[in-house]
């Protein structure tokens, strides 16, 4: 018997997130061994009259390929997959790998090659800009371990998060997006953090289940050279399979001039990938009411209630400050009291304190009003 939660998730992904229309081509990429959700999506795309295509990816195989890849091989790989992506109207990416660290020992020069030659043109330039797309993780024992819960408890949490009423959340985001569109100066304060920048004229974008499941953020980008001060992130982060903790950046006129972490040498190697990697491409405020604690999975962590993320690298064209880079690294700061607290000010007006929105027009985004 099919799990009704899986059927509902497949219906949400196909009918709401990417809104498959008759005749549209849909690429479903499954990273890992999960098949129940994949099969449910295939059936749902068929019911909508779409044409489904499937890519099965094994991280251990991908690791072997990356460790032995040449530039020419990577260029051919990118050319093949880019041609396929150009024929797609929709993309659903499901990540269900058993080990989040499978790529951790791929040499940094190989990962830079993969990011610049393959991932950037295929995903950042084509998939993100020219398809209706959604990406998500799927619950398994590995994710439960990261969340410090039993597998069954994590599955219950997962489906609460992924099957909530995203249409309701979408309506609740209107006031925040409107306020961000009218804001010039932003200030973020908290332990080890005092950061200022402008978002004037960039525009704000609501995220409510169309591109990510789970979801729950509104994003924009800082004016590229306006960022000054220091930010101390309090959430561990994975990048190319490597865990970074205690990340701290100091900015001068938009550029990261000092970066430290538990692996300061490697973080600076990443930030030296290209000129845009030391500038910020996204600023977002997260508020999913069911996601409270980090689990080193950015699809969840960037939506944590009471959080924000401040992202080195590529800007989205939908909220574009002109920054271009082969990386886009979402780093999360949680401002609820149990993580040290903190404040966000728009044009010198306090809008959120210790993770709770304090302006009446924004209270619909507080946890008790979104569940």
Describe the structure.
This protein is α+β, with helices and mostly antiparallel strands and 371 residues long. It has 12 helices and 19 strands. It has helices at residues 4-17, 36-47, 59-67, 71-86, 108-130, 141-146, 151-162, 166-172, 174-182, 264-271, 298-301, 367-370; strands at 25-32, 51-57, 90-96, 132-137, 185-190, 193-198, 205-207, 217-220, 228-232, 237-239, 242-244, 248-252, 255-260, 280-286, 307-312, 332-334, 343-346, 349-353, 356-357. Strand 18 (349-353) and strand 19 form a beta hairpin. Helix 1 (4-17) packs across helix 2 and helix 4 runs parallel beside helix 5 (108-130). The longest helix is centred in the first third of the chain and has 23 residues, at 108-130.
Describe, in short, the structure shown:
GO terms for molecular function: aminopeptidase activity. This protein has helices at 4-17, 36-47, 59-67, 71-86, 108-130, 141-146, 151-162, 166-172, 174-182, 264-271, 298-301, 367-370; strands at 25-32, 51-57, 90-96, 132-137, 185-190, 193-198, 205-207, 217-220, 228-232, 237-239, 242-244, 248-252, 255-260, 280-286, 307-312, 332-334, 343-346, 349-353, 356-357.
Largest sheet: 8 strands, antiparallel
Oligomer: single chain
Q: What's the β-strand tally?
A: 19
Mean pLDDT rating: 93
**Shape from CA axes?**
globular
Unreliable residue stretches: none
Q: How much helical structure, as a percent, in the residues?
A: 25-40%
Question: Helical stretch count?
Answer: 12
């Amino acid at each position: 018997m099919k799990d009704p939660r899986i059927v509902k998730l497949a219906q949400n992904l196909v009918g709401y997130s990417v809104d498959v229309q008759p005749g549209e081509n849909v690429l479903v990429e499954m990273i890992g061994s999960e098949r129940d959700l994949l099969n449910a999506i295939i059936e749902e795309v068929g019911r909508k009259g779409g044409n489904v295509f499937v890519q099965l990816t094994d991280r251990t195989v991908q690791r072997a390929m990356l460790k032995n890849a040449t530039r020419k091989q990577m260029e051919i790989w990118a050319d093949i997959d880019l041609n396929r992506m150009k024929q797609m109207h929709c993309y659903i990416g499901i990540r269900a790998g058993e080990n989040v660290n499978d790529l951790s020992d791929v040499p940094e020069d190989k990962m830079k090659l993969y990011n610049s030659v393959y991932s950037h043109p295929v995903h950042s330039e084509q998939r993100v800009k020219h398809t209706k797309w959604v990406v998500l993780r799927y619950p398994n024992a590995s994710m439960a371990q990261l969340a410090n819960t039993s597998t069954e408890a994590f599955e219950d949490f997962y489906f609460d998060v992924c099957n909530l009423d995203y249409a309701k959340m979408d309506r609740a985001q209107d006031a925040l997006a409107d306020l961000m569109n009218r804001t010039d100066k932003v200030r973020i304060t908290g332990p080890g953090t005092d950061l200022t920048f402008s978002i004037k004229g960039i525009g704000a974008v609501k995220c409510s289940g169309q591109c990510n499941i789970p979801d729950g953020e509104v994003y924009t980008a800082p004016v590229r050279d306006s960022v000054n001060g220091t930010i101390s992130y309090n959430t561990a982060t994975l990048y190319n399979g490597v865990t970074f903790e205690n990340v701290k950046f100091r900015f001068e006129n938009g550029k990261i001039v000092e970066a430290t972490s538990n692996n300061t040498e490697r973080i600076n190697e990443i930030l030296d990938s290209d000129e845009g990697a030391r500038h910020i491409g996204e600023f977002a405020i997260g508020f999913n009411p069911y996601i409270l604690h980090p689990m080193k999975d950015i699809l969840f962590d960037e939506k944590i209630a009471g959080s924000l993320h401040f992202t080195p690298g590529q800007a989205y064209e939908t909220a574009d400050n002109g920054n271009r880079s082969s990386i886009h690294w979402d780093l999360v700061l949680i401002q609820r009291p149990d993580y040290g607290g903190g404040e966000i000010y728009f044009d010198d007006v306090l809008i959120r304190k210790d993770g709770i929105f304090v302006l009446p027009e924004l209270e619909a985004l507080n946890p008790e009003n979104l569940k």
